[in-house]
Amino acid sequence: MPIKDILHCAAVAEKNGFGYVTVAESFYRDGFALASAIAENTRKVKFGTSVMPIYTRTPFQLAMGTTTLNEISGGRAGFLGLGIGYSGRTEQYFGVVQSDKIGRTKEYVEIVRKLLSGAEASFHGKFFNFEGFPRLTKDPLNIPIFFGSSGPRMLTLAGQIGDGVILNSISTPEYVEFARERIAAGAREAGRNPSEIKVGHSIIYSIAESHEKAANAAREDILFYLSYPELDPVIDRSPFKFEALKIRELYVRGRRKEALSLITEEMLDTFAVYGTARECRQRLERLLKRGITLPIIRVSSSSYKENEMRWVYLKAINSLAHFSPAG
């Protein structure tokens, strides 16, 4: 979608009561540059990252981007979502092999907090070793750090040292319960209160004027996520394990249409929020009852032409105007 359309949609989201605009980073646009442009066109909405990969952006780049965005936006940097990223992409697109993911994440988070502390920073570890990094900000920035993760060890680490998590875009009630248990276990090990750890969730949100069109767009997103082995902790705790692995096999072999045809209505109901505006709001209400405290809407748009995407995003934004979960 053209940047001018993104800026327009962000402004409409702000008017409609959205609390955050989130940016991601993978291999296309620079997340902080885009967020800074949005900041210049908004006044109140806060910013989050969902998520920034730690293997392709150093903690120094992340901290510098955060402090710059916070200055441009007038203090609206809201949270930092960090993740290891999909290993296949990291290796293919950037030539970076992921190793010791837990160890690197620990160091990364500690360094980012040092760099945002308002003081000169030094660190000596396995992956990073530096001395006397000049302070980036006059005053400390206590910005929450969320872990974008699906695996049990990283969820436990989030409970130990993170401020929250951002669960991936497909899940089941059983998986969310499992994730909350791992987070709570990590928090207790570190002497923390598990209730203080926020549970965010990226949510496939597919809206259209017809149920069928919305379902087909959601299938595209579900197929994308089922294709990645990083989602196996979710798939393993779903009633669709066999079907999901078959779908992945077909997709990898280039039989995309056949893979899409195997995504059933039951899978759609479990993994996505989709349908008309009224149906989407109802489905979102039900999904949040799994224990989600920070819903992050991921609009299904990959099946639309570029000149249709603005309309799709605006329809999604307007459907959630001043949305407040019941209860």
Rg calc: 20 Å
CATH class: Alpha Beta
H-E order: HEHEHEHHEEEHEHEHHHHHEHEH
- Percent helix range: 40-55%
Q: How large is the share of residues in beta strands?
A: 15-25%
Uncertain segments of ≥5 residues (pLDDT<50)? none
Rough shape? globular
CATH superfamily grouping: Luciferase-like domain
Summed up, the domain count is: 1
Quote the average pLDDT.
95
Any idea what the CATH architecture is?
Alpha-Beta Barrel
Largest sheet geometry: 8 strands, parallel
CATH topology: TIM Barrel
N/C terminus separation: 35 Å
In terms of topology, how is this protein built?
Blueprint: H1 3-15, E1 20-23, H2 31-40, E2 46-53, H3 59-73, E3 77-83, H4 87-94, H5 101-115, E4 121-124, E5 129-133, E6 145-148, H6 152-161, E7 164-167, H7 173-189, E8 198-207, H8 211-226, H9 232-235, H10 241-252, H11 256-261, H12 265-271, E9 273-275, H13 277-288, E10 294-299, H14 306-319
Parallel strand pairs: 1-2, 2-3, 3-6, 6-7, 7-8, 8-9, 8-10
Antiparallel strand pairs: 4-5
Helix pairs in contact: 1-14, 2-3, 3-5, 6-7
Protein model, in words:
- This protein is 49% helix and 17% strand.
- With 327 residues, the protein is α/β, with parallel strands linked by helices.
- It has a single domain (3-211, 273-319), classed as TIM Barrel (Alpha-Beta Barrel), CATH 3.20.20.
- Strands 1, 2, 3, 6, 7, 8, 9 and 10 form an eight-stranded parallel sheet that branches. The chain has a two-stranded antiparallel ribbon with strand order 4-5.
- Helix 2 (31-40) links the parallel strand 1 and strand 2 (46-53).
- Helix 1 runs parallel beside helix 14, helix 2 (31-40) runs parallel beside helix 3 and helix 3 crosses helix 5.
- The longest helix is centred in the middle third of the chain and has 17 residues, at 173-189.
- The protein is globular and about 60 Å long.
- The protein starts with a helix and ends in an 8-residue tail after the last helix.
